[in-house]
Design goal:
CATH class of the largest domain in chain B: Alpha Beta
CATH architecture of chain A: 3-Layer(aba) Sandwich
CATH superfamily of chain A: HUPs
Strand order of the largest sheet of chain A: 11-10-9-12-8-1-6-7-13
Number of helices of chain B: 9
Number of strands of chain B: 17
Shape of chain B: elongated
CATH superfamily of the largest domain in chain B: HUPs
Helix content of chain B: 25-40%
CATH topology of the largest domain in chain B: Rossmann fold
Number of strands of chain A: 15
Strand content of chain B: 25-35%
Distance between the termini of chain A: 58 Å
CATH topology of chain A: Rossmann fold
Number of domains of chain A: 1
Helix content of chain A: 25-40%
Largest sheet of chain A: 9 strands, mixed
Distance between the termini of chain B: 49 Å
Radius of gyration of chain A: 22 Å
Structural class of chain A: alpha/beta
Oligomer: heterodimer
Strand content of chain A: 25-35%
Largest sheet of chain B: 9 strands, mixed
């Protein structure tokens, strides 16, 4: 199987994020591999390992695909150190500020050319939190959308995939064939820590850096734009009491005063 | 007059409160038409449940492809109706299904998409709270119709009775949209408590519960609240992951959020920071969540919550 994993480099969850000129200031914050993409990398590796492995000459390959500034090679390198075989990074100044439609268009074009059997993603990035790119790529590729999976079962011989989809609306069993786009929820697995050997090996792995023109994507125009952005004012300081046995009642009084009960 | 198309959201055969919220949000732009996607034979029942909120027209499409093929089939139908009716804006509920349908429609029609709006202006621009609610952003689609997903519980719904006209239509579903097949669906397990993202009150427990959620649940039940949990609590296996509030879990904005034994890592704050009133109960006076508290109690939740539970019950009796 040819497996692609889409990842994104995002600002560290702990970092203070700022908007500059309508865009997230990515240059001046610590950047990491999106937490939720680690589950996608892990699931790709587990699927490969369950069906003949992804060592050199093995039955499967796991390719990391990302779009972002050149600095995103750090996040890509982390996925490689977990055990992915190689990587493609689409990096081009024309893509700065790309919205979800453009991102999905570019990634889907690269995926289409690469003829992958499975495309695996996290459910969302922890910065934009839109949760739409996997569905958009499936739409563009015209292939099965198997998203929000808490369990993935692959039958490479029959080229079939079954997932358990878990959302607010309940639990669905969903089936599709190769090629398909899968997104996996947190908790599907426990992502591995890169081993020392993995980290050393990742340094020698190829990251194929491509420009926009090479992808064959048709547009870079974003259809949505930020008009303005401002930090929210801090909440007004509230009342804090120390429990002396009466705090429970004081809490009830507060709720009553605010007409919450 | 401009028109707004909303994709009605259902729980079983009943339109949800979130449907009334997006209708209310849409009415500031223009006349609201609701699109109902129903299984064959169920269209009339689904449409009849749209009896509240500023909806003037209901379009009903019946097809078993919606339940069999899910998001992709629904996106085909919505895109078709957008093409036929050219509304000023399209509003969808911001849940996993709604966001994915919106994403596919945006990709298909090459239109702008804005997710997780908390307010909509008459010029179709949207307000979003990003980076864990620390920043307010106003966004707009560049031109033409945009599709906007609206976060549940952020718009004050207008529940005025409605008696919209109902029209049955059809839409083609492409073969590509039938490539994923759903063979079984189970509704979420309801514990008799409201859904986390739709609840007016949420009571959450964290590390401080030490695994015992009974006290937190009892307080939640006295308030008719949903129960949430911090990542520390769900990671420890103390409470189901589906109840996790935070950056990697659910985002809630209830009228009242009560955090019990939760210190308030950024991870958690990102999921509850936009709540209208915040109450914090924690033994540690240094817990960062006290910074957000409208009312804070430095104390043991096991000592504070039981008398509060009794107090609420007495107040309601």
């Amino acid at each position: 199987m040819k497996i692609a994993v889409c990842i994104k480099q995002v600002p560290d969850s702990w970092a203070e994020k700022k908007m500059v000129g309508g865009l997230l200031d990515r240059a001046n914050v610590d950047a990491v591999l999106n937490d939720l993409d680690e589950y996608a990398v892990e699931e790709a590796l587990r699927i490969a390992e369950a069906h003949g492995g992804n060592e050199e000459g093995g039955a499967n390959t796991v390719t990391v695909i990302s779009m972002g500034p050149e600095r995103a090679t750090e996040a890509v390198r982390k996925a490689l150190s977990m055990g992915a075989n190689d990587a493609i990074l689409i990096s081009d100044a024309v893509l700065v500020g790309a919205d979800a439609v453009v991102t999905a268009e570019v990634l889907a074009n690269v995926i289409f050319k690469g003829e992958y059997d499975l495309v695996i993603c996290g459910t969302e990035s922890t910065d934009a939190r839109m949760s739409v790119v996997p569905a958009m790529m499936s739409e563009k590729l015209g292939c099965a959308q198997l998203t929000f999976a808490s369990k993935v079962t692959v039958d490479p011989g029959a080229k079939k995939v079954s997932i358990t989809r878990v959302t607010e609306a309940g639990v669905d069993e969903v089936h599709g064939e190769f090629p398909c786009v899968i997104s996996v929820v947190e908790k599907i697995n426990e992502p591995r820590y890169p081993s020392f050997k993995g980290i050393m090996a990742a340094k020698k792995k190829t990251i194929d850096i491509r420009d926009f023109a090479s992808t064959g994507a048709e547009f870079t125009k974003s259809w949505s734009a930020v008009i303005d952005a401002a930090p929210r004012p801090p909440r007004a300081a509230g009342v804090v009491v120390t429990d002396d046995g009466s705090a429970g009642q004081k809490l009830v009084d507060f709720l009553s005063e605010k007409k919450l009960i | 007059m401009s028109t707004v198309l909303i994709l009605a959201d259902f729980a079983g055969e009943k339109a949800t409160k979130a449907t009334v919220e997006i209708a209310t949000a849409g009415a500031v732009i223009g006349e609201v038409t609701a699109l109902v996607l129903a299984p064959v034979g169920k269209g009339a029942a689904y449409a009849a449940s749209i009896n509240q909120g500023p909806v003037t027209k209901v379009l009903v499409i019946e097809s078993d492809d919606f339940t069999k093929h899910g998001v992709a089939a629904c996106a085909d139908a919505l895109a078709h109706v957008i093409g036929q009716t050219t509304p000023s804006a399209v509003l969808v509920v911001s849940n996993a299904f709604g966001k994915e349908v919106a994403g596919r429609v945006a990709m298909k029609l090459k239109i702008g998409i804005i997710t997780d709006a908390v307010d909509i202006a008459p010029d179709c621009s949207a307000t979003q709270l990003v980076f864990g609610g620390s920043t307010t952003v106003h966004s707009k689609v560049a031109e033409g119709t945009g599709i906007i997903t609206v976060r549940p519980n952020t718009i004050t719904a207008n529940f005025a009775p409605a008696s919209p006209t109902i029209e049955n239509i059809t839409a083609p579903i492409s073969d590509c949209s039938k490539k994923a097949t759903i063979t079984s669906s189970q509704p979420p397990v309801k514990g008799g408590r409201p859904e986390l993202t739709e609840a007016n009150i949420v009571v959450s427990g964290g590390r401080g519960t030490n695994g015992d959620f009974a006290t937190v649940e009892a307080f939640a039940d006295s308030l008719g609240a949903a129960v949430g949990a911090s990542r520390a609590a769900t990671d420890a296996g103390w409470y189901p992951h589906s109840h996790q509030v935070g950056q990697t879990g659910k985002t809630v904005s209830p009228q009242l959020y009560v955090a019990c034994g939760i210190s308030g890592a950024i991870q958690h704050r990102a999921g509850m920071q936009t709540s209208k009133n915040i109450v914090v109960v924690n033994k540690d006076p240094e817990a960062p969540l006290f910074e957000l508290a409208d009312f804070g109690v430095v104390g043991d939740l096991f000592a504070v919550l039981p008398p509060a539970t009794e107090g609420v019950k007495a107040r309601k009796a």
